[in-house]
Amino acid sequence: MSKSRMLELAHERLYWPEPDQIWKPIGSGPKVYAQLASKKIGEKIKREFPEDARGLEVSVLAANPKGADDLPINHDDEVHWKDSTDFSAFKSPQMIIKMSWQSKRKRFLALLVQSNEVNEVIICSGSYVSVHLNHENYSIMEAACLSYNSKLAVYYLLLSSHRFASYRPEIKASDLLRVPVPDTESISLQNIQSLEDIDEAIRKAFSFKDSEWVLINDLFDYTLPDFKGNNSSPGRQKTHRSTRNLYEKIQEPHLTKYCEYFLRVIKAGFGQDKEVCATIFQESTDDYLPVRLVAIYLNKLIHQGIKVEAIRSQALLDRLNLLNDLFIEQDDSDAGGIFYQRVARVYDSTEWQGEQVPTVYLIKPDKIRYWTRSMALRDADDVAADIMLGRTELDIEPEVVPQ
Questions:
Q1: Which of 70, 144, 170, 242 has the fewest CB atoms within 10 Å around its CB?
Q2: 256 and 363 co-located in one domain
Q3: Can you give the three-state secondary structure of 57-113, one letter per residue?
């Protein structure tokens, strides 16, 4: 039986949409999801199985592939007297915004209504908000639609909406009005085919710096899933000692990025000519410790850039005990040693080729959320502040680094 005949039978007996509506949905929402499925799923299958995927077509099965044109007609236009009697917000052009955060998409949802008839609009329930602008300002509504579907909306609303930031993933209409919308001249819906395209368009429209976009990404990828999720959330997982992509094996992907951004902040604050480098201490066996250790060397290049140093678990534990003793000597509070608090920062000096090299040791739990790029920005700021305020001391007996 041919593929088209199978879809025709599904339409006749199972009341599926017509085959053409499955392959080429015209509704704004189904159309976007069909494009995403073709790009994300179809292209991956073709790459992985080029011989078997010849003639492959991928789309989505939507309840209303036509969008607004396929919704039932409303014949009851009466509303409660306390509700608004002005239906101008439901006129075309129209945008519908879902008031709650979507856990599967990890985003909010906004759609532009496409209808063949000027007078056909969508009347939504209280779980949605309808937005209308005249045709002259339609580009503003397009820009707003992109903004509401982006990571930026999630970042902004989590920090500004008390409802979203507490126990309910639902916001108010007044919260939506505060979400930043880019200038219409700097954004367009053309070539937008995926959520990644939306985020990139928003990033360019607002001219976000890399450090600013890192804060948005880390909140989206780690902070919010940890807050709304459980023990399986990404930020609560252990850091990867190594990972592999299509081309190579990558050592310490999380801690390497952490160190890259840490060193960038130090150089930005004290000068690009400053010689700084980092060492990531990694267990040489699968007997992993519950904490990770990173050393930042200041004013001298002990090695180039970032180095991963394999060390036996017992040797690493011995080093942590030495740092614990030094931390107790330096800390004036009664907080205890590094094993009694989640995060510890120890200032020491390292002897290398007869010179004392100022060294900062960072000891934190083996959880991804402690080693994100945004945490690197914060930790580096704290270290820079300690240096400028003179709150650091060098150890009297420096550690000797093997040459």
A1: 242
A2: yes
A3: CCCCCCCCCCHHHHCCCCCCCCCCCCCCCCCHHHCCCEEEEECECECCCCECCEEEE
* Domain range enclosing 126: 88-207
Instruction: Please give the structure tokens belonging to residue 133.
Output: 């602008």
Question: Do the Cβ atoms of 94 and 131 come closer than 8 Å?
Answer: yes
Q: How many residues does the chain have?
A: 403
Sign of torsion over alpha carbons 152, 156, 159, 161 = negative
Q: Examine the domain organization and report whether 51 and 94 are in the same domain.
A: no
How do residues 7-66 score in pLDDT, each as one tens digit?
777 777 666 777 777 777 766 667 777 777 787 787 888 888 887 777 788 887 776 665
Question: Do 269 and 128 share a structural domain?
Answer: no
Give the Cα separation of 389 and 16 in Å (integer): 69
DSSP helix, strand, coil percent of the chain (3-state; round to 5) = 40, 15, 40
> How many domains in the chain?
3
Cα dihedral across residues 393, 396, 402, 403: positive or negative: positive
Report the largest interatomic distance among the alpha carbons of the chain, rounded to a whole angstrom.
88
Q: Do 136 and 52 share a structural domain?
A: no
For residue 223, tell me if it sits in a domain. Answer: no
Is the peptide bond between 93 and the residue preceding it cis, with omega within 30 degrees of 0? yes
**For 246-290, what is each residue's pLDDT tens digit?**
778 889 999 999 999 999 999 999 888 889 999 999 988 888 888
What are the residues whose beta carbons fall under 8 Å from the beta carbon of 279, sequence distance 6 or more?
A: 294, 295, 297, 302, 303, 306, 307, 308, 309
Q: Return the residue matching tokens 């439901």.
A: 90
* Same structural domain, 275 and 341: yes
